[in-house]
Fold this protein.
Amino acid sequence: MNVGEHGLLLLGCGKMGSALLAGWLKSGLLPDAITVLDPHPSEWLTGLAERRLRLNQQPDEPPSVAVIATKPQIMAEALPGLRDYGNGPTLFISIAAGTLISTFEDMLGANTPVVRTMPNTPAAVGAGISALVANHATSAGQLDLAEQLMLSVGETVVLDQEGMMHAVTAISGSGPAYVFAMTEALAKAGEELGLSAEIAAKLSVGMVAGSGRLMSSSSEAPARLREQVTSPNGTTAAGLEKLFA
């Protein structure tokens, strides 16, 4: 993976930042092409510093890419340190939930290339899906680079309008919580029907994980897969009728 002559800067290396960093390294990005700024580095980050990753050192030159992975509530405190890189060739990629592109343009300059992206929590195991949207200052090549970086933790979609991020939040951003809640409810129902907690949990988690793999690998639409499981007047049909009543 080529991130440009002046490398990549990662601001914030919490759970999502660490997932991204691990994905980039796995994709072939060398540690010496990466700078990480994080006030509380993990032992893993410290170990990477021994492999020539730059840890908590400002780059000698503006980086080719700066990935903003801080929490939105500390953005105003963390971002001004990168203000000198605005209105230039540095591409800014934000994974900060709910932070508009205009926020970065206001703080960094209106001509700063900015790509806003929203990954979801399965990115932590390389199975996420991220939506990306770029501002007017972002070139096609920079958008492609942003997409390649996000592909290291799963799949991607590119949006034409930033306003569509609201729909992304509802579907892929919040969606994992809905799936986890459904899994939790199924396991609880299994226990109420007499299964042990261990078996009920294993059946529920295995079913959800397997169904996801089937959907992602099948050419059939989810509606068709549902129909294949649902015999007319059978128990599954009765359950669906109750679920969607």
User: Anything to note?
Assistant: The chain has two domains: 8-164, 175-243.
